[in-house]
C-alpha cells in the first residue's frame, strides 16, 4: 500500500532523527526496491523476447539504434534532468505552502499551472520533429549501418517516447516530492509490459518494428499508471490549509527537513527560507535548466558514442554491447533506489540551509549505494557467462553470442562504481539554490575521454575496447565530481570517502575471486551462479566487516540481532 502524503508528513514532522521518519524512508525504499526489481526483471524478459524472436544480427542492430531514443528520453526526461529540476522545485513549493498565509495561492498548484502546459507543447513539438528527422538521426547515430531503412522506420515509432516519457517524468518528480513512491517506481513495469505484450500479440507481422511500436504503447502506460495519484494530490492541494505558524512542515519525506525556525544543524544558513524560495521561484528558467540538461545529455551520450564506434564492426556488435550493458546496469539501478527515495529529503534540507544534515544523508547514501553496486559488480565479473547463458541463450541467440556478450559485460562492470557515484553525488549539486555547471563540465570531460580512448582501443580490442572506454570515462567523471563537491555544494571529506570506498572495493575484489572459483567448480550454469553469488555475499560481508568499511554495521546489525536472539 502506498504511503499517503498525510502519513509521510506526520512521520517526517517527528524530527530528522525520529524512528517514525526512518520507518517511512525504509518502507518507501522497500517498495521502490521491489518495483525496481520487478521492472528490471521485466526489462530482462523484454530483452530475452527480442533475442529469442530476432537474435543478435542486423535487424536487432537497427532496432537498437532506434532504441537510443527511449534510452535518451528516459535519462533526460525521467531519471536525470526532469527529476533534478522538478523534485527540488516541488519540494520548495511544498515548503512554501506550509508557511503561506491564508490569502496567498497554493504554490504547488501555481508551479503545476506554469510548467505543465508549456512542457506538453514542447514535448509534442520535439516528438514530431524527431519523427520527421529520423533519416538524419540514424545517419548521425550509426553511419554505415546495413539496415538503414529499418532503423529509420523504428526510430519514427520510438519518437513517441519523447512525449510520453516527458509526461511520465514530470508526474514522477511531482509525486516523489509529495512522498509518493509506488506509482513512480512502477513506470518501468508498465513500460516493459507494454513492449512485451505488443511483441507477443503481433510477433508474426512487422518483424522488429513491432518492438518499436511497443515502445509507444509502454510510454502511454507509464503516464496512465501515475495519473490517478497525481490527480489526487492536486485535488487535495485545493483544500490544503495554510500554515498557522512557522513550525509547520509540508507533506512528504522532505518534511523531515523542517523549517528554518526549527534548525538544529550547526552550519549557518546563508539565506532565510524566503530568500532561497525567491531564488528558485522560476524553476524552469534557462539558467536552471541549462546545466541540468547539459549534464543529462552528456551522460547519455556515452551510449551514442558506443553505438557510433560499434556501427562499422561486424553485425551483432551493437547487440552484444546492448545486452551486456542492460544486465551489468542492474546493480547500479538497485544501488540508486535509496537515493531516489532520499533525494526530496536532501533537496528540502538544502533549501532550508541545513547543509550538515544533507551532508550526513549523502555520506550514508553514498556508502550504502557503493556497497550494493560493488557486490553486484563482483557477481557480474565472476558469473558473466552463466548469467548470459541463463538469460539469453535460446532461439536465435547462440553460444558464440553468449561468449561475446559475457566478455563485454565483465569489462562494463569495472565502471559500475563510477556510474553509481555520479548518480548519487550529482543530486547534491542540483539541490543547491543556484545553477551549477560543474557536473556538466565534468561529464563533458568524461565523455571526451570515452570518445578518444574508445576510438583508440576499438582498433586493438574491438567491442571490448568500447566497453573499457566507457568504464574509464565514467570513472574519471566520478572522481572529478567527488573532488569538486566540497567547493561547490556539500563539504564531504574526500579522504574519508575514498578510504571507505577503497575498503569496500577490496572486499568486492576478494569476493569476486572467491565467486569465480566457486562458479568454475559447478557445471550447471544455474547452480554455479547461485553458489557463486552466495559465496560472494558471504565473503564480501566478512571482509568488509574485518576492514571496518563504512555502513557495514548497518547491514550486519540485523544479522547480529538474529544470532543473539537465536542463542
Largest sheet: none
Topology order in helix (H) and strand (E) letters = HHHHHHHHHHHHHHHHHHHHHHHH
Helix content: over 70%
**Rg for CA atoms:** 23 Å
Poorly predicted tracts of residues:
1-19, 243-286
Shape designation? globular
User: What is the CA-CA span between the terminal residues?
Assistant: 35 Å
Figure out the total of helices.
Answer: 24
The count of DSSP E runs of length 2 or more, i.e. the number of strands, is 0
Strand composition percent: under 5%
Mean model confidence by pLDDT? 79
Protein structure class = mainly alpha
What does this structure look like?
- The protein is mainly α and 567 residues long.
- Helices cover 78% and strands 0% of the residues.
- The protein is built from 24 helices and no strands.
- The radius of gyration is 23 Å and the shape is globular.
- The model is unreliable at 1-19 and 243-286 (pLDDT under 50).
Secondary structure layout:
Layout: H1 5-12, H2 19-54, H3 58-79, H4 81-99, H5 107-132, H6 134-141, H7 148-158, H8 160-177, H9 182-185, H10 187-201, H11 209-238, H12 273-279, H13 286-310, H14 317-328, H15 330-335, H16 337-351, H17 355-392, H18 399-413, H19 416-429, H20 438-461, H21 463-488, H22 494-520, H23 525-546, H24 552-566
